[in-house]
Amino acid sequence: MDYKKIKIPHHVGIILDGNGRWAKERGMKRSSGHEAGFDNLVGLSKHMFNTGVKILSVYAFSTENFKRSKEEVNFLMNLFENKFKKYAEELKKENIKIVFSGGREKPVKEKLLKIIDECENITKDCTRGILNICFNYGSHSEIVQAIKKIHKDLEDNKIKEKDLNEDMVYHYMFQDLEPIDFLIRTSGELRLSNFMLYQLSYAELYFPKTYFPDFNNKEFDKALIEYTKRDRRFGGIDYSK
Ligand code: FPP
């Protein structure tokens, strides 16, 4: 595909959905679906940055996902513990910086927090793109913690109420990233599930039926063609048409 002829979103968000159903349809355990999803993400994320995407935010694990069975949660935590570091090393070679968004409180284990810090640390000087991994993440709690930080900065006179504006709010989120341009949720579900609600205000939404482990580079290119066709007006009207 000639990527020069299509519009490339600056910031893409992906809700990685359908790992469980992908596995079930193959008579496999849900855990195999998560493993396949992770492996898919490794190749797909590299491809996405190669097309020119600068920021990729992925919903790896929501705070609510801790309500799943102990077996599934443990499997996912072990998967993250065993694979995050190697992924970070691969992305470092691609000059991609990894950042994490989410809560650091229990039940997230100390060992995993250490790995998260290491991933951020080894890629901190990378400049070609940013992978934002949303882990133990919920958008409402991100907004609440932002409000608390803003309140504190107002009290400490670090900022003035009259200067507070919409752009500044991004600075108080878990990561100071630009708005999302294109949101993909795989598996056909039509929900946002508490994912980056402030950052998604004007995102174009795309809901392919494909389960995440099958959402490959070709599927992403198809998504880019769809994105190119969208007329983004940000609430305005294009009077030239
Ligand atoms: C949703 O599928 C997927 C998850 C809750 C976990 C996804 C995690 C990964 C693919 C690994 C991501 C890794 C990194 C490094 C970001 P589901 O279980 O809800 O599937 P279902 O809806 O078919 O049951």
What does this structure look like?
With 241 residues, the protein is an alpha/beta fold. Strands 3-4-2-1-5-6 form a six-stranded parallel beta sheet, sandwiched between helices. Helix 4 links the parallel strand 3 and strand 4. Helix 2 runs parallel beside helix 3. The longest helix has 24 residues. The radius of gyration is 18 Å and the shape is globular. The two termini are 28 Å apart. The mean pLDDT is 97.
Query: What is the multimeric organization of the chains shown?
Result: single chain
Helix and strand run: EHHEHEHEHHEEH
Largest sheet: 6 strands, parallel
Number of strands: 6
Q: Which CATH architecture would you pick?
A: 3-Layer(aba) Sandwich
Terminal Cα separation, in Å?
28 Å
- In CATH's first tier, which class applies? Alpha Beta
User: What is the strand arrangement across the widest sheet?
Assistant: 3-4-2-1-5-6
> In CATH terms, what is the fold-level topology?
Undecaprenyl pyrophosphate synthetase
Nearest-integer average pLDDT: 97
What global shape is seen?
Answer: globular
Beta-strand content bin: 5-15%
